[in-house]
Design the sequence.
C-alpha cells in the first residue's frame, strides 16, 4: 500500500506528547498552518499519564495513553486539528515520540533518563579523547537499544499492519554534543579532525538506523521517503565551522534519503542560510521569528517553510502583538507553518483558540 502523502514538501507534525518532527505534506495545507503541541507535563497534569520508561518501551501502554490524549484534545479544542494521526482512523501512530531525542545516543550506550512528566534525557556520560579517536559505528544487529525498538515495531505491525510514525534521529551536531559534551566545541577549534571522526561515525549510524526503520515500515505498507535533521545547537558554532565541519554531513543525509527537513528551533537562521541553500532536496526549513523571513522565502521558495513560535510568546504576549507577528509572517514568509510546540500546563486554552482563529483569518486574507 502506498503512503497517502505524495507531495515532496514536508510540514511540521506533532503527535500527542511527542517533540515536533516532520511528515510529508498532503498538498492542501492552508496558507498559514498552525501545528500545536503540548509538553508531557501538560498531559500529566490533565490526565495523570506517566511518561516514564514504560511509555517509551511498551507500545501497548503508549497506545492506550495516546488514545486518552486525543480524547482530551478533542474535548478542549473542538474543530482545531491537534494531535491528529497520519493516516485514516484505525491505524494510530504509536511510534512518534518514542525515546524523544535520545535514540542515537542510546545506540552508543549512553543511559537514558526517564521522567514521569517530561521527555527523556541523556545521562551526562561523555566520551574521552581516546574513545572518540577510536570510535566506530556500533553493530546495529547486536545492539540492545535497536533490539527493543525492533521488537516494538513488530508489535505495532502485528496490531495494525502498517507501522506508521517516525523516530527522531536528531542531527549530527545534536547527537555529537550528547556523546562528547562541551568538549565538542573545544575540539572544533583545537582538533577538527577528531570532530570529523565523531561526525562520520554518528552520520553513519543515523543513516543505517533510519534505513533499517524505513525498510520495516515499507514492508508494512507505510513509506517514509525523507529524513529530518535537527540543528538545535547550530547557533553555538560559527557559520564557517558549520560550513567546513557539518554541512558535508547534512548534504550526505539529504543525498542519501532524497528529501530533507531542516529544523533550527527558534534561533535566528540568517548566518547559516547561504550554507543551507547548498543542501539539495530541502523540502522543509524552520527558524525563529527574528530571522530575515523575506530572504529565507527567496532562498527556499520550493520548500515548506515554518516559524517556531515560542510557547513563552503564546503565553505572555498580548493578543494584538501575536496578531502583528502572524501578519508579518504571512506577508513576508508565507505560505508556511507556524509551529506552536511545547505549550505547558500554565497556558490558558483560550490562547490556543485565539491563535488558531488568527491563523485561519490570515490564511483567508493572504491565500
Sequence:
Amino acid at each position: 500500500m502506498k503512503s497517502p502523502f505524495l507531495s515532496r514538501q514536508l510540514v511540521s507534525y506533532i503527535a500527542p506528547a511527542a517533540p515536533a518532527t516532520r511528515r510529508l505534506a498532503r498538498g492542501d495545507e492552508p496558507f498559514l498552518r498552525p501545528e500545536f503541541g503540548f509538553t508531557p507535563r501538560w498531559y500529566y497534569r490533565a490526565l495523570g499519564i506517566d511518561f516514564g520508561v514504560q511509555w517509551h518501551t511498551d507500545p501497548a501502554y503508549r497506545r492506550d495513553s495516546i488514545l486518552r490524549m486525543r480524547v482530551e484534545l478533542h474535548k478542549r479544542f473542538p474543530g482545531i486539528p491537534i494531535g491528529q494521526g497520519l493516516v485514516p482512523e484505525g491505524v494510530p501512530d504509536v511510534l512518534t515520540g518514542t525515546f524523544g531525542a535520545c535514540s542515537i545516543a542510546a545506540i552508543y550506550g549512553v543511559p537514558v533518563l526517564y521522567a514521569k512528566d517530561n521527555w527523556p534525557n541523556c545521562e551526562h556520560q561523555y566520551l574521552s579523547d581516546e574513545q572518540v579517536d577510536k570510535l566506530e559505528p556500533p553493530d546495529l544487529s547486536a545492539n540492545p537499544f535497536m533490539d527493543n525498538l525492533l521488537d516494538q515495531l513488530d508489535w505495532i505491525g502485528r496490531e495494525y499492519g502498517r507501522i506508521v510514525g517516525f523516530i527522531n534521529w536528531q542531527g549530527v551536531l545534536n547527537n555529537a554534543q550528547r556523546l562528547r559534551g562541551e568538549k565538542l566545541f573545544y575540539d572544533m577549534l583545537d582538533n577538527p579532525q577528531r570532530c570529523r571522526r565523531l561526525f562520520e561515525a554518528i552520520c553513519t549510524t543515523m543513516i543505517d538506523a533510519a534505513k533499517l526503520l524505513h525498510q520495516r515500515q515499507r514492508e508494512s505498507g507505510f513509506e517514509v521517503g525523507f529524513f529530518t535533521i535537527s540543528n538545535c545547537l547550530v547557533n553555538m558554532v560559527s557559520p564557517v565551522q558549520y560550513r567546513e565541519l557539518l554541512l558535508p554531513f547534512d548534504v550526505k543525509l539529504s543525498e542519501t534519503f532524497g528529501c530533507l527537513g531542516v529544523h533550527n528551533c527558534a534561533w535566528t537562521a540568517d548566518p547559516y542560510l547561504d550554507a543551507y541553500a547548498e543542501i539539495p532536496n530541502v523540502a522543509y526549513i524552520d527558524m525563529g521569528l527574528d530571522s530575515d523571513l523575506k530572504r529565507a522565502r527567496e532562498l527556499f521558495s520550493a520548500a515548506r517553510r515554518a516559524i517556531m513560535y515560542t510557547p513563552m510568546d503564546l503565553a505572555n504576549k498580548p493578543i494584538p502583538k501575536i496578531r502583528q507577528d502572524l501578519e508579518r509572517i504571512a506577508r513576508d514568509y508565507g505560505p508556511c507553518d507556524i509551529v506552536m510546540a511545547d505549550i505547558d500546563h500554565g497556558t490558558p486554552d483560550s490562547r490556543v483558540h485565539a491563535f488558531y482563529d488568527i491563523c485561519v483569518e490570515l490564511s483567508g486574507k493572504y491565500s
Summary: The chain has 15 helices and ten strands. The mean pLDDT is 95.
